[in-house]
Each structure stands twice: as C-alpha cells, then as structure tokens.
Amino acid sequence: MPDTDSDSAVEESQTNAAARRARGEFVRSVSGFRHAIGDPDFPAEPGRYHLFVALNCPWCHRVTLARNVLGLQDSITMDVAFPNRTGEDDPEGPGWWEFAPDRIATLTGAPLPECTQETGTGRGVRLVRDIYRSEGSPERSVPILYDKRAGRIVNNESAKIIRMLNTMAGPLGSSLPDATRADLYPDTVSTRAEIDALNEFIYNAVNNGAYKAGFSSDQAVYAEAFDAYFAALEQLEARLGDGRPFLTGDHFTEADLRLLPTIYRHDPVYYLRMKLNGARVLDYPQLWRWLCRVHALPGVAKSGSLIHCRQGYFGRSWNGTVPLGPFAPMPYPQAYDHPDLAG
User: Fold this and answer.
1) Are residues 166 and 214 located together in one domain of the fold?
2) pLDDT tens, 31-59?
3) Which positions are annotated as active-site residues?
4) Strand 152-155 relative to strand 144-147: parallel, antiparallel, unpaired?
5) Residue 94: count of CB within 10 angstroms of its CB
6) What's the confidence (pLDDT) of residue 320?
7) Are 105 and 311 contacting, i.e. CB atoms less than 8 angstroms apart?
8) Which domain covers residue 95, as residue numbers?
9) Structurally, how many domains does the chain consist of?
10) Do β-strands 77-80 and 110-111 pair in parallel, antiparallel, or remain unpaired?
11) Burial of 326 (0-12, 13-18, 19+ CB in 10 A)
C-alpha cells in the first residue's frame, strides 16, 4: 500500500523526549502497532475488523470520520470508551480508558448513550489496557484497529488507519459506490504531494500544536506553540480565501479530514482548555465556512460528539467541572449549521 506521508506528519520526533518533557514540553508518544489491512495476515474482508475509540479523542475522531465518509459503518464494527479515564477509586488504578456504558457523565448527570461495552475481542474486557496486554504490549491508547477473526491488533496509529481504510474501502465492504465515494488520497503525484505537505503543516502546528500549547508547563514553550497555532489558522484562512471549498480544491481529502477534529473542538473546548484564546474559529470567516461545509457532509456530524469532548477534556481538569457554554451566538454544534454566523 503506497504511503508517502512523512514521519513528522504522523508522529512526533522522540529525540531527547525525556529532557524535553522535563523542561515542560508536551511530547506525544509513538504508537507501536503498524500492520496494515492488505498484509498477508490481515486480508481486506467485510465484517472482519473492529475499532476501539473514544469520541473525545481527536486522533480517534480522524478514524471515525474516515469510517463514516467512506461508508464503512456497517462493515467495520466499533466500541466507544467513556470519555474520562478511570479515577483513583478504581480497583485497577487511575488513568485507564474503560468501556463503561453505565458510567455517569458529570456534564449530563446520566450515562452517555454512545458508550458501549467491549464487543470486539469476544472477551468483554473493561479496560483498553487488557486488549494490549493480550499481545504483551504496555500501550494504553486509542484508537485501535482490531482483527476479530485473528484476535490481534492491526494498527493503533490514526494516520495509518485512515490511509488504509481509504485504500481498501471497496474490498472492506463500503456501502458507497466507487464512483461516488470520496477518495481521501487521490492517486496523482501532484495531489498527493499537496496533501502530504498540508498534513505535515497541520499536524505540527494545529493538531499536535494544540496539545503543545494546552499541556505545556513552561510559559515560553506554551507561547511558541500558541503563536504557531494562530499563524497556521491565518495561513489556512488565506488559503481558503480564493473560493475553494476544500483545502486542496474542489474535493474533500485527507487534509480536510485531519484538520477537522482540531477546528471542530476549538471554540467550545480548546479556546479554554488548551489556553488557545487568541481568537475563535468564528473570527476567521473562510475557515468557519469551511468547517460548516465539512460538517454538513454525509456522515461527518455523526462522527464526533462535543458532549464527549467537553466531558473528556474538562472532566479530567483539576476540579472536574465542565463548562456549560459557549451559548453565543448559539450553542455548539448547532452553530456549525450556520455558515452565515461569520458574516
């Protein structure tokens, strides 16, 4: 399967990671499972594969977006973890993703209907940790692409998963005809080069940049990430200013898909939680209209949940209180149905 995405568009360099963390920088770890659907051990078959995700996680959001826009909802099953991890009172200890459909969200005072039991392994495990432990891995992250027939993890790197789902959508049993289904990574050299360049820029300045800002404990490191993030939004605003509907032109591609999870979260979550209060997306008219345009595509709105996002990000803050806004100019995500709000 062709894969020209550069490492820096997929994962963060681990050079001097311990020292960088010690001085207050957020350094994302590297995912360890890199098999692919289409490898001899993992043939492309409808009904064979399963996803483990959390809807508050932007890296999982990439994968649920790909599953939906490629018409794979019926052929790739999925389990959804609760947006907050286990607490100090859990018998297994704190910090684990768990499948807990009966757990009460502090934001709503009720269980979240999207959350599920674990059904992919056939063992009904509660903790994502135990899916990894069955393969001798200490990892704990989501998303996970899982082979139900082999009982094995295929891949846990979101950038790789969305690429393989696009490449194998037909053999995997997409409900959408080849002629009408989005091609997230078109097979032309110039388009792929453009997508690859955008992916690298978006990952470093926007996707991972939001975390660099929000989770830094050093003022200078935070300020650098903050400045790079808003400089990137300005560049994206200018890029969309020529009237193109999507980042590479007339068609929705992987570059749009990878940008959406961060932009979707910015106004209602990242503006506060990640200390990215320089401006709202609503203050960038072209970018706001792009967000509304993408959100209106079939399958996109059902790929994420701002309730899960707000619960997940704020529910793990120091006091666990989840903000109730914003409600002006209208509540989110309803605002994404109104491109005219940006003027």
Assistant:
1) no
2) 579 999 999 999 999 999 999 999 999 99
3) 57, 211
4) antiparallel
5) 11
6) 84
7) yes
8) 31-172
9) 2
10) unpaired
11) middle
